[in-house]
Specification:
Length: 490
């Protein structure tokens, strides 16, 4: 039997995968549009034309309403929704988190999802909100664990079973919960109760929650970020190893007259132009869209196009080994996303273990790039260079450099490396000619380390006048430091 989840390509913590379900295989990362069984703005089967490969709906809403429930039991979930691809069903836990209780037990809702033929079944986990006392988070986690263990014993057929990871805003609880569930062998791992973090733009904490859960899970398991539907944060979440998202946002935003872009959301009333090439935005002007009778539906359609366009770009970026460049661009859309990016790179040591050892050219996109996993990896490998005799370190060629025993190139944010490696990854990096403070900090500290690791070599560092950094004083103590404009002109 082949695995339920197969990974085809990787970049940073992100991956392109194939998830097998009873109603077909889906390529990840992907978004599952949320379908409300009561209201259908866009017919489910039409979702495919936007790029949707799998939908998600709420089994509790179906269970509670007799008209829906009887049709679902008779014709199945796929018959009820009129969709023949994979469908994931949620359990009512979200209603539990909003209303405080639900009129169904874990066993009842599991049995119902099984009967109606859900492709991915979710137990009745307890979504513990952020910032609660540690004790409450721990206690609720214990109840969730019991229900999940019961679910794992109960669901044994070919339907997939999800094991939601809870633990509030405590990374240690998230990691503990994840490693416990890892041993129980769920098919998909949703990260739960993150909606409040996303709603209040707490992306730095979201990054810590995702990283903690991922560290507890097997790197080969598919991960779903529950309730994440805004495309501006997909790249960041994918880089951390999230494979599935679900979007009610496309419809909720449309109802409010909001127009989604990867750089944020506009209110349609405030738009004079439609900055998107989708069929809706090509056909209508901003004014026509504002006045359209079916404005809500048109906005929902645009929102879905924008959502899936980003998924395709993310997948292409993974193929190209350019995911982190995309993440760095996207995280400039909002300062709180930038905080998320900074947090992402505090996990670079972990990401470095997941990141392919060679990939396409590294692009320096700003001070955060200095903390990328590739740069960290170079710093850890400095011991591999063994240098003796006279050594010159320079940026671009200088006169007389060939008379030295060793020629090294200085490139921020990496540091100094032997010239013969210039075309080799990651030294073939595209970097700014005018390194900023962060890039210089990493590069100069690595250069200093290299000098200290090679006491048998005598170093000359030909430095640019623009390089202003306190570490240059330290380098001066161990090497001859000459500014390029003062370099001998024979
Ligand atoms: N939808 C949004 N968050 C959650 C969660 O934590 N658990 C479940 N089951 N559904 C959700
Ligand atoms: Zn559009």
């Amino acid at each position: 039997m082949s695995a339920i989840f197969e990974i085809l390509d990787k970049d940073a913590g992100g991956r392109i995968g194939k998830l097998k379900t009873p109603h077909g295989t889906v390529e990840t990362p992907t978004v599952m549009p949320v379908v409300n069984p009561n209201i259908q703005l866009i017919p489910p089967n039409e979702m495919k034309s936007f790029g949707a490969e799998i939908l998600i709906t709420n089994s509790y809403i179906i269970y509670r309403k007799e008209e829906l429930r009887s049709v679902a039991l008779e014709k199945g979930l796929h018959g009820l929704l009129g969709f023949d691809g994979p469908i994931m069903t949620d359990s009512g836990s979200f209603q539990l988190s909003v209303y405080g209780s639900v009129e169904v037990t874990n066993e009842e809702i599991l049995g119902f999802q099984q009967k109606i033929g859900s492709d991915i079944i979710v137990p009745l986990d307890i979504p513990t909100p952020p910032d609660v006392h540690y004790r409450r988070a721990e206690e609720e986690l214990a109840v969730t664990a019991e229900r999940l263990e019961a679910a794992r014993k109960f669901i044994t057929g070919e339907q997939l079973l999800a094991g939601p990871v809870q633990g509030s805003t405590y990374p240690e609880l998230r990691e503990k919960a994840a490693s416990h569930l890892r041993d129980l062998n769920f098919d998909v791992y949703p990260l739960g109760a993150v909606v409040p973090l996303m709603e209040s733009y707490r992306y730095a904490e979201l990054v810590d929650v995702i990283a903690a859960a991922k560290k507890g899970l097997s790197p080969t398991s598919p991960v779903h970020l529950f309730g994440a539907g805004h495309p501006m944060m997909f790249a960041l979440a994918v880089a951390l190893g999230c494979d599935l998202f679900d979007s009610a946002a496309y419809a909720i935003y449309a109802k409010d007259g909001r127009y989604i872009t990867v750089n944020g959301t506009y209110h349609i009333e405030k738009l004079n132009y439609l900055p998107c090439p989708c069929p809706i935005c090509s056909k209508y002007t901003a004014d026509e869209l504002k006045k359209a009778k079916n404005k809500e539906e048109l906005l929902a359609r645009h929102n879905l196009y924008a959502t899936f366009a980003e998924i395709r770009l993310i997948k292409q970026s993974i193929r190209d080994g350019k995911l982190l460049e995309l993440v760095e661009q996207r995280c400039r859309a909002h300062p709180k996303l930038l905080d998320g990016l900074k947090k992402l790179y505090t996990h670079s040591a972990w990401l470095e273990q997941l990141d392919p050892a060679t990939k396409s050219t590294y692009f320096y996109c700003g001070p955060e790039s200095a903390s990328r996993p590739e740069v960290l990896r170079f710093g850890k490998r400095l011991e591999r260079f063994s240098l003796e005799g006279s050594a010159i370190i320079r940026t671009t060629p200088v006169k007389g450099e060939r008379s030295y025993d060793q020629l090294l190139i200085f490139k921020a944010p990496f540091g100094a490396f032997p010239a013969e490696m210039e075309e080799v990854y990651p030294f073939n990096a595209e970097v700014s000619k005018f390194p900023d403070y962060e890039a210089l900090s990493t590069a100069l500290s690595n250069t200093l380390k290299l000098i200290e690791l090679n006491p048998k070599a005598k170093f000359t560092f030909v430095c640019e006048r623009e390089f202003e950094h306190p570490l240059l004083e330290k380098i001066k103590e161990k090497a001859e430091l000459v500014y390029r404009d003062a370099w001998k002109k024979e």
